[in-house]
Amino acid sequence: MQLRILGCSGGIGAGNRTTALLLGRHVLIDAGTGLGELTMDELAQIDHVFLTHAHMDHIACLPMLIDTVFSKRTQPITVHGCSATLAALREHVFNWRIWPDFTAIPSPEAGMLRLCTFEAGETRSAAGCGITALPVRHTVPALAYALDSGHSTLVFSGDTADCAEFWGAVNALPQLATLIIETAFADHEQALAEVSRHFSPRQLIAALSQLARPEQVQILITHLKPADQELTMREVLASGGHYRIARLAQGQTIEF
Predict the structure, then answer these.
(1) Calpha distance 66→106 (Å, rounded)
(2) Where is the Metallo-beta-lactamase domain (predicted)?
């Protein structure tokens, strides 16, 4: 199974694209500005979108996706997320004021957008993978995702601060090979990381002590804020040299 990194930055500018990961050809994990890297034909093949949470950098291109492929599809795009995420989409995005309500277009009985509640602990199958929602801790209700190809498992944290329930769920995965985990802020902005419930390098390395079997896991750092991305990554590597850590790259393809 392949996971294509369309965007993995914590911001925009100078080629940075926000979070969007393409699983196979038909499944998207988050729908940030990285989604704009796909061709029209590639966009039209997306059947499912699994959202970690409702913050703008993770949903920015979802409304445009549905509008763009509307005339090219006969089946709806299903968006999966926790109940709070889907409620935010209904109230604040697909409300006829910010964007048309595609759950009712072309008709209430056959909308091009289908919203499907997906809570922590549940598992669904898509793109030949088992996709399990995991608990995390952010400023809004949010999820991480475990992607099980049958050969190995990849976990994408989404946005989170330290969370014992997350590490408990991760450590219960017997085939974990890859952990994509966010580190948004450099250590000099640790107070901002704490209030916004993101990791700084110091906080991340401390949290990784809860990871079972770290020698078996490739750790990839995502969601670096552009202003300090080089500094943040240097701090992660300086403190976490005993882990297998690298920076996640836009355009990268991970096989698992």
Answers:
(1) 12
(2) 17-188
Q: Which residues of the chain are under the pLDDT cut of 70?
A: none
Q: In the prediction, which pLDDT does 176 show?
A: 98
Beta pairing, strands 153-156 & 143-148: antiparallel
- Determine the pLDDT at residue 110: 94
Using alpha carbons, select from 44, 30, 65 the residue that is nearest to residue 157: 30
Q: What is the CATH number of domain 2-255?
A: 3.60.15.10
Q: What span, in angstroms and rounded, lies between the C-alpha atoms of 166 and 93?
A: 29
Percentage above 90 pLDDT, the chain: 100
DSSP state of 226: G
Tell me how far apart the alpha carbons of residues 28 and 30 are, in angstroms, rounded to a whole number.
Answer: 6
Q: Which DSSP helix (H) or strand (E) runs through 88?
A: helix 83-92
In a 10 Å sphere around its CB, with 0-12 CB exposed, 13-18 middle and 19+ buried, how is residue 180 labelled?
A: buried
Only one residue has tokens 């500005």, namely 33
Alpha-carbon span 22 to 113, nearest angstrom: 19
Please give the structure tokens belonging to residue 47.
Answer: 């059947």
3-state secondary structure at position 67? helix
Among 117, 48, 61, which Cα is nearest to 93's? Answer: 61
Instruction: Pick the closest to residue 134 from 164, 161, 169 (CA basis).
Output: 169
Let me know: does 32 contact 18? Beta carbons within 8 Å.
yes
Domain ranges across the chain: 2-255
- The number of beta carbons lying within 10 Å of the beta carbon of residue 33 is 22
Q: Going by DSSP bridges, is the β-strand pair 143-148/176-182 parallel, antiparallel, or unpaired? A: unpaired
Q: Which residues, including other chains, have CB under 8 Å from residue 68's CB and lie 6 or more apart? A: 40, 43
pLDDT at 241: 86
